[in-house]
């Protein structure tokens, strides 16, 4: 068991009775736990409170001052005389290393780094206080940049994808020559959305935007012969819009269609199953979490690239621009995705 030079366990317990805030309570409890448990390491005790060993080591030393100083001056975040002004070279290297890991790897409950979180880490780990502007600069020097994270979708098992592809090949072989194979998908384009742009240094540009979150919805289809079909929707996607799309696809490509689609609820609804019953429409649902198998996703990627950082005053302008862009896309080969 480690020992404090001046403050005793009784001093720590008395201080604990005087504090109410979460952080001071955690600090006192962690040090008390560590001093009371003969076989516990600092890292083990600190982990219970979501921190690392150096954090607890610093508080063991700091709380020794409870014997002579008021509780508020010791366990709260108020700066004290002699506080470290900046990171040492070794500490900076540790900070950079931490930034290139998930915050969870250094005991912080967050999925990704932010400036306030990095600032908190510096204060807790090294007792160094920097303003957010300086922390942002340090993060940039460490090789990090501010960007929007891609959402992490449920990932289908590779074996499930391979099994689906084998099953689809057999189904395709059993279809007669009159069938058209189609892949369908959906997207939403928001009015007046600026993604990112580059501007000359030293300028503070502004662009006319609206606060509206109006959007257009699109359902799209790609055929096995390289044809496309896009249907704008006024309302949110539902089983009724799916049925109208299937009806429009039959009008466009013939009665016999084999449609590959994802597992969105408006595609799998009972009303859709009832609609295709007793018709020559074949529905093939992709494995969950498998957008990479759907070539329609490539159409939306090209559409996003075409419309990105363009601002539109009205939904009609956005709709016209989207349909014009979709006329110019390079249509992907269906079987490159479905039967690689």
Give the secondary structure arrangement, pairings included.
Elements: H1 9-18, H2 22-36, H3 42-48, H4 53-62, H5 71-75, H6 89-99, H7 115-126, H8 132-141, H9 158-174, E1 180-190, E2 215-223, E3 228-233, H10 239-253, E4 257-261, H11 265-268, H12 270-276, E5 282-285, H13 296-307, H14 315-328, H15 334-338
Parallel strand pairs: 1-4, 4-5
Antiparallel strand pairs: 1-2, 2-3
Helix pairs in contact: 1-2, 2-3, 3-4, 7-8, 10-12, 13-14
What does this protein look like?
Pfam families: DDE_3, HTH_33. This is Transposase. Residues 111-166 form the Winged helix-turn helix domain. GO terms for molecular function: nucleic acid binding. The protein is an alpha/beta fold. The protein has two domains: 9-141, no CATH class; 158-202 and 211-338, Nucleotidyltransferase, domain 5 (2-Layer Sandwich), CATH 3.30.420. Helices cover 45% and strands 10% of the residues. It has helices spanning 9-18, 22-36, 42-48, 53-62, 71-75, 89-99, 115-126, 132-141, 158-174, 239-253, 265-268, 270-276, 296-307, 315-328, 334-338, and strands at 180-190, 215-223, 228-233, 257-261, 282-285. α7 crosses α8 (132-141). The N and C termini lie far apart (63 Å). 23% of the residues are buried.
Q: How many individual domains?
A: 2
Q: Kindly state the mean pLDDT as a whole number?
A: 80
CATH topology of the largest domain: Nucleotidyltransferase, domain 5
Succession of helices and strands: HHHHHHHHHEEEHEHHEHHH
Uncertain parts: 78-84
Structural class computed from helices and strand pairing: alpha/beta
Shape: elongated
Helix content: 40-55%
**Widest sheet: strand ordering:** 3-2-1-4-5
């Amino acid at each position: 068991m480690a020992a404090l030079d001046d403050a005793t366990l009784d001093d720590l317990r008395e201080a604990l009775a005087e504090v109410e805030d979460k952080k001071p309570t955690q600090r006192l409890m962690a040090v008390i736990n560590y001093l009371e448990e003969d076989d516990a390491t600092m890292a083990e005790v600190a982990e219970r409170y979501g921190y690392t060993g150096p954090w607890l080591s610093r508080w063991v030393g700091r709380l020794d001052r409870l014997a002579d100083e008021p509780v508020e001056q010791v366990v709260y975040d108020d700066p004290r005389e002699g506080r470290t002004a900046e990171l040492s070279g070794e500490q900076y290297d540790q900070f950079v290393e931490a930034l290139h890991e998930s915050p969870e790897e250094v005991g912080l409950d967050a999925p990704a780094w932010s400036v306030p979180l990095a600032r908190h880490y510096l204060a807790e780990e090294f007792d160094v206080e920097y303003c957010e502007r300086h922390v942002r600069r340090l993060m940039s020097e460490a090789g990090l940049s501010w960007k929007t994270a891609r959402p992490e979708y449920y990932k289908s098992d590779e074996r499930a994808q391979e099994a689906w592809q084998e099953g689809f090949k057999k189904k395709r072989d059993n279809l007669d020559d009159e069938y058209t194979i189609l892949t369908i998908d959906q997207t939403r384009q928001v009015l007046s959305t600026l993604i990112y742009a580059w501007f000359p240094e030293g300028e503070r540009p502004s662009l006319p935007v609206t606060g509206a979150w109006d959007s257009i919805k699109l359902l799209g289809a790609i055929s096995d012969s390289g044809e496309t079909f896009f249907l704008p929707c006024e309302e949110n996607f539902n089983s009724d819009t799916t049925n109208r799309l299937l009806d429009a696809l039959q009008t466009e490509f013939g009665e016999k269609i084999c449609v590959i689609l994802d597992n969105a609820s408006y595609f799998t609804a009972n009303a859709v199953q009832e609609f295709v019953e007793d018709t020559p429409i074949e529905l093939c649902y992709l494995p969950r979490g498998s957008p990479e198998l759907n070539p329609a996703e490539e159409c939306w990627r090209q559409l996003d690239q075409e419309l990105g950082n363009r601002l539109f005053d009205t939904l009609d302008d956005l709709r016209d621009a989207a349909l014009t862009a979709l006329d110019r896309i390079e249509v992907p080969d269906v079987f490159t995705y479905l039967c690689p």
